[in-house]
Design goal:
heterodimer, A: 281 residues, mainly alpha, MetI-like fold, 70% helix, 0% strand, B: 346 residues, Rossmann fold, OB fold (Dihydrolipoamide Acetyltransferase, E2P), six-stranded mixed beta sheet, 9 helices, 27% helix, 30% strand
């Protein structure tokens, strides 16, 4: 594998650079578009950044695109963050607890409970969107943070992953904790959760991005502008009725919407890279 | 100091046709180190785990210090346990590993620090208190596991094959340390192992188990010198005792003057009891010689061509493969066992 042949090295780098370029180019274009005036963007997109960056970003951050029916982006970013965090933390809490129950307690219909959770993996949000909407509407949770996040919290994926991890924790550890006088919840808090740290970090990133990227659901449950999220906001800007979409501002918004997930990934990176490749035992 | 009593303890796993332990009674005196030894699957670990409270007791009664513990949680039995893989909490420092049990009992922080410091000092762990278990060697981890057991100052220590994960040299060293520590603390201990050498060297009293039953209880040397059954004779001692069928052992029994047994009982003789003797009753054709330094194990076949015999001989003048060796034995060193049930004949 570690052959040192110059030609091979060139080919390897070429492939990697090409791959990276294919991924980065659209983002680069979005950035370029966000630094020009509307006219420049609409008359054929230049390939180099322009000088309108501060004006554009200041506009979206401060005023929003009132003509396109979107509130200031700062509010939408905050709404998105609240929703994504609520979904992430809720999913983590619920799935940690439910997999703890499934792995460590013998109760009737335990296997059935696990498989029921597991089967919901096969139902994406979109499939159950009508009944879910009905329930949320009946509960009066439309246009609220609760309505945005709670229906998305139940998570089979995270429960499944934590179950698999808990099953690799040696039984002796549980027994040692029992002898040390740790009851079930103490064992959970003092031993299982700290041991799951890397898994939690990895899932945090994945779930945060999942929550952040929600599009259809926020679109359905919010009609009040003050609860709009940034991902659906972009869509509203682009479908701005009769007017020409203001692409330079839309692209500024898109770039800004990219930042929070990047921040989360960078913050968790050290932990989650380790979480995905190595289990500390 | 507290004693441990097991009376008619039974264990049947749900769904199992046969009992793992069909009913076993054992009294362990205060301050005694009692070793349960036997092949894997003989129920010794199950028994220990029942004393610890990690395994439910199907029937019978277990008392620790006169208190019935059958239905008590492990934490309330006043015992501590050392596991085969140590079961240290990987995310806690050595200090926290040792302090966790005390903390859960609501001991004041200052007292915990003091107790951990004393235990760490006793085990030479003081400089490692801030490390995580993964930064320690196998021997150090083993000592942390010991430390976790002794800080609590329990009524009894339970050891579940605590040396199995160490290399041979460290195992011998740690064995001595465990014995020394147990004697200094005087804590009643049950120690489970499948290693007969470990069992012999550690035990005040040896309990040899087979298929959920006790084959023999006694001080190690007594078990070695007077094995109660063929099973014990074959299990205790290394290399194992030679077992001669009534036919093959007849000459030996005759030579020892045991005419009533000759041809009727199984004759057992320890390899170290055999010695070269011109015209001796056993003629062995040598196949392999294992030199161990001070002694050598000579493996050979009797003249019936199928009975294998091992003789442990001292000295430097050893036979080579193909030689015929004549061996004799002191009559007192012969063990006679019943052909039907394998019990010792006196």
């Amino acid at each position: 594998m570690v052959e040192r042949r110059p030609l091979l090295l060139v080919v390897q780098h070429a492939v990697l650079i090409l791959g990276a370029a294919v991924f980065v180019f659209p983002i680069y274009l979005a950035f370029v578009a966000s630094t020009h005036t509307a006219r420049e963007v609409n008359s054929g997109l230049p390939l180099l950044p322009g000088d309108q960056m501060w004006t554009n970003y200041a506009t979206v951050l401060g005023d929003g695109l009132s003509t396109a029916g979107a509130p200031p982006i700062g509010l939408m970013l905050m709404n998105s963050t609240i929703m994504a965090l609520a979904i992430t933390l809720g999913k983590l809490a619920i799935s940690l607890l439910s997999s703890f129950a499934i792995v460590y307690f013998r109760f009737p219909f335990r296997v059935l409970a696990f498989w029921t959770i597991f089967i919901t993996l096969m139902l994406p949000v979109e499939v159950r969107i009508l009944p879910t909407y009905e329930v949320v509407a009946q509960l009066g949770m439309l246009n609220s943070y609760a309505g945005l996040s709670i229906p998305l919290i139940a998570s089979a994926t995270a429960t499944f992953l934590f179950r698999q991890f808990f099953m690799t924790v040696p039984d002796e550890l549980t027994e040692a904790a029992r002898i040390d006088g740790a009851g079930p919840l103490k064992f959970f808090r003092d031993i299982l959760v700290p041991l799951s740290r890397t898994n939690i970090a990895a899932l945090f990133v994945i779930l945060f991005i999942y929550g952040w990227n929600q599009y259809l659901w926020p679109l359905l449950v919010t009609t009040d502008e003050s609860y709009y999220t940034v991902v659906m906001g972009i869509q509203r800007m682009a479908n701005a009725g009769e007017e020409t979409p203001q692409w330079h501002l839309i692209m500024s918004t898109a770039i800004l919407a990219l930042l929070p997930p990047v921040v989360v990934i960078l913050a968790m990176q050290r932990l989650f890279v380790r979480g995905l490749v190595e289990v500390e035992k | 100091m507290s004693d441990i009593r097991l009376s008619e303890v039974r264990k049947v796993y749900p769904g199992a046709a046969e009992a793992t332990i069909p009913g076993l009674s054992l009294d362990i005196g205060a301050g005694e180190l009692c070793v349960l030894v036997g092949p894997s699957g003989c129920g010794k670990s199950t028994l220990l785990r029942m004393v610890a409270g990690l395994e439910e007791v199907t029937g019978g009664e277990i008392t620790i210090d006169g208190r019935r513990v059958n239905d008590l949680e492990p934490a309330r039995r006043d015992i501590s346990m050392v596991f085969q893989n140590y079961a240290l909490y990987p995310h806690m420092s050595v200090f926290k590993n040792m302090a966790y049990g005390l903390k859960n009992r609501g001991m004041p922080t200052a007292e915990i620090a003091e107790k951990v410091a004393v235990a760490a000092d006793m085990l030479g762990l003081t400089e490692f208190l801030d490390r995580k278990p993964r930064q320690l060697s196998g021997g150090q981890r083993q000592r942390v596991a010991m430390g976790r057991a002794i800080v609590r100052d329990p009524a009894a220590f339970l050891f579940d094959e605590p040396l199995s994960n160490l290399d041979a040299k460290l195992r011998v060293k740690t064995r001595v340390e465990i014995r020394d520590l147990q004697q200094r603390l005087g804590t009643t201990s049950i120690y489970v192992t499948h290693d007969q050498q470990e069992a012999m060297t550690l035990a005040d009293r040896l309990v040899v188990m087979n298929a959920g039953r006790i084959e023999q209880i006694g001080p190690p040397m007594e078990v070695y010198a007077q094995p109660a059954s063929l099973f014990v004779a074959g299990f205790i001692g290394s290399p194992p005792m030679n077992m001669l069928s009534p036919g093959a052992g007849a000459a030996l029994a005759e030579a020892a003057g045991l005419h009533h047994a000759a041809g009727r009982a199984i004759v057992g003789v320890r390899p170290e009891a055999l010695h070269p003797e011109p015209g001796g009753p056993l003629a062995v054709s040598v196949r392999v010689v294992e030199r161990l330094g001070a002694t050598a194990n000579v493996h050979g076949l009797l003249d019936d061509g199928e009975t294998e015999v091992i003789a442990s001989l001292a000295g430097t003048e050893l036979p080579g493969p193909g030689d015929t060796l004549r061996l004799g034995v002191d009559p007192a060193e012969l063990h006679l066992f019943s052909r039907t049930d394998g019990q010792r004949l006196t």
